[in-house]
Amino acid sequence: MVEKNDDKQTDVNQSSSNRDETAAASSNEGISRRTFIKNTGLVAGGVVGGGVLGGVLGNQWFAGTDTETAGEAETDGESNNFQEARMFFKRPEDFQVLSAAVERIYPEDDIGPGAIALGVPYFIDKQLAGEYGFNARDYMQGPFYEGAPTQGNQSSMNRRDVFLQGVRLIQSIANENFNTAFFDLEGEQQDEILEAFENGEPEMPGMDSAAFFEVLRDATLRGAYSDPVYGGNQNMDGWRMKEYPGPQMAYIHMIEDDEYQDMEPVSLHDHN
């Protein structure tokens, strides 16, 4: 028993010696365990606490460093744009009508790109393929009555059906009045049809055509200004036209600067 205790005491002394050597090595490397734990705690707190701690850390640790946003990175050769893949519209003609319509609502001009270049048609397509298209967060049980103008859309149709009926009615009116597809018309002719929808003139089964135009316009603007992770606002150009910086982690490193800050926007995927 005495010999075993001696061995145990020897092991304890060796372990203590090893810990002392490790601590000394850590001290020589310029960072202590206590400092590491404290900084790690700040990082964890920054996630929970929001922009203040995140800004402090960003100011202390990342000041003067260059960060490369998505889209600035250069790659050799061509890459596939997987955002441009239809998930809802099965007929190319329907998607072409949608694309032409949203481009007239949000056209390209001297200020910046239009809806097509911003990826709005694909944004709407992806939204219709998910909860938005099924009205998953809306109360959709009857009875259904015609609502007052202040009550918004009261139709029993979900948005998937609304968009399909809407774009096909647009195409039908174009063929009937101009004997050609909507996406082949001149801009003024397309505007004439869209204005008729805005005024609620065409008869649309199950829904007022003015309500469809309102939904179409709302989805167009959402696609132009939402975060690019949802498929629209390509290259964050919608934000650039508004000079909106996107979801920055913090502004504490520049808040005391009196100069105007010209900031490159960042997307949610830049924080991954």
From TrEMBL:
PROSITE patterns: TAT
Residues covered by region (Disordered): 1-28
InterPro entries found in the cross-reference section: Gluconate_2DH_su3 (IPR027056), TAT_signal (IPR006311), TAT_signal_bac_arc (IPR019546)
Alphabetical list of Pfam families matching this protein: Gluconate_2-dh3
Compositionally biased tracts (Basic and acidic residues): 1-10
Name of the protein this chain belongs to: Gluconate 2-dehydrogenase subunit 3 family protein
Organism: Salicibibacter cibi
Organism lineage string: Bacteria, Bacillati, Bacillota, Bacilli, Bacillales
